[in-house]
Amino acid sequence: MKPARPKRTRLRSKAKPEMPSLTENELKALQEIIGHRFKSPDMLIRAVTHPSAVSSADSVRLSNQRLEFLGDRVLNLVIAERLIDRRKMESEGDLAPRLNSLVKKGACATAMRHLELQRFIILSDGEISSGGRERESTLGDACEAIIGAIYQDAGLSQARKFIEKGWAPQFSAAPSETKDPKTLLQEWAQGQGLPLPDYTVLSRSGPDHQPTYEVEASVTDRGSAVAAGSSKRDAERNAAALLLKSLTGDT
């Protein structure tokens, strides 16, 4: 009896996606600024990889989108802890707008510029030529992703150190406004005996990694204003600020 012939293995010639990278010197400099040497440097590289730098099929695995999601939650926790610890006499109503002002995309972008980390973001040539390296949403997303990467690599304590360093100027600066525009608009409407403001999303455009929301803020019988933002929350705040300015004349 003849021995059974071994089954042939079908080989698939599927090209392996190319992992974005930084030079050894860039990676070293980036870690020095962050103040943490990564056990897994690939995680840090992923944190600074914009979705435009990889194919759409590999975006989830190779870009910073998932780390951004995690970092946003870590940032909110650290800032909330800091406010609770240092503003012991303030109510939840006072703390919430302070929190919002320090965790929004603009605050994250400011931290990136303060640390001069924008030069390390990995972008497509097209994104670079269109000014992506200075775009607030790009900087904010990368900053949140770096926080997420630090948290996964070394835990909350190390992530907190990075946030304290990156946000130092914002922590020391006296806030120009203790309440965000949505809160101010709500208080104005209540003071006038009017219903609370309404917010309606008019449109969402742009790619998933860089959306633009257009929102209308309105107060019954008093008017409305439309504004855009890189998130629904930012668009609502911008629309509220415009409407409040038209209603009160305040700058």
From TrEMBL:
Compartment list: Cytoplasm
GO molecular function: double-stranded RNA binding; identical protein binding; metal ion binding; ribonuclease III activity; rRNA binding
Substrates-to-products reaction catalysed: Endonucleolytic cleavage to 5'-phosphomonoester
Enzyme class: hydrolase
Listed Pfam families: dsrm (PF00035), Ribonucleas_3_3 (PF14622)
Biased composition (Basic residues): 1-14
A cellular component term, taken from the record's GO annotations: cytoplasm
Residues annotated as domain RNase III: 27-155
SUPFAM superfamilies named among the record's database cross-references: dsRNA-binding domain-like, RNase III domain-like
Residue ranges occupied by any DRBM domain in the UniProt entry: 180-249
Sequence segments annotated as region (Disordered): 1-21, 204-232
Similarity field: Belongs to the ribonuclease III family.
Gene coding for it: rnc
Active site: residue positions: 72, 144
Species assigned in the record: Hyphomonas beringensis
Keyword match Metal-binding: yes
Family matches, as InterPro entries: dsRBD_dom, RNase_III, RNase_III_dom, RNase_III_sf
Primary role: Digests double-stranded RNA. Involved in the processing of primary rRNA transcript to yield the immediate precursors to the large and small rRNAs (23S and 16S). Processes some mRNAs, and tRNAs when they are encoded in the rRNA operon. Processes pre-crRNA and tracrRNA of type II CRISPR loci if present in the organism.
Binding site for Mg(2+): 68, 141, 144
Entry EC number(s): 3.1.26.3
GO-annotated biological processes: mRNA processing; regulation of gene expression; rRNA processing; tRNA processing
Location (main, coarse): cytoplasm
Protein name: Ribonuclease 3
NCBIfam families: RNaseIII
Sorted UniProt keywords: Cytoplasm, Endonuclease, Hydrolase, Magnesium, Metal-binding, mRNA processing, Nuclease, RNA-binding, rRNA processing, rRNA-binding, tRNA processing
